[in-house]
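B., you asked whether I could sanity-check this one before it goes into the benchmark set. Here's the sequence:
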Amino acid sequence: MKWEAELDERGRILIPSDLREELKFRTDQKFKIETHGDRKIVIQPLLEPEEFIAEMKGCVSGSKIKAENLKEIWGVKHPHH
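And here's what the prediction gave me:
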């Protein structure tokens, strides 16, 4: 599905309400914004620590990825680097 939105004079883009509902975006929720190439942005909700822990339960057990590598993947600075 595709949506359209416009940039207002203050640089804001309103995400259509049906899309916000579908993605379960909440008022006052924080987001990470990344650029990909010259003209593409990705907006991703940041997880609260409790949400992150709940989503990761059972995912790391038996992983072949070292903990410090997981921190890099998750964007957490490792104190020894």
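One thing to flag: The two ends are 42 Å apart (CA to CA). Otherwise nothing jumped out at me.
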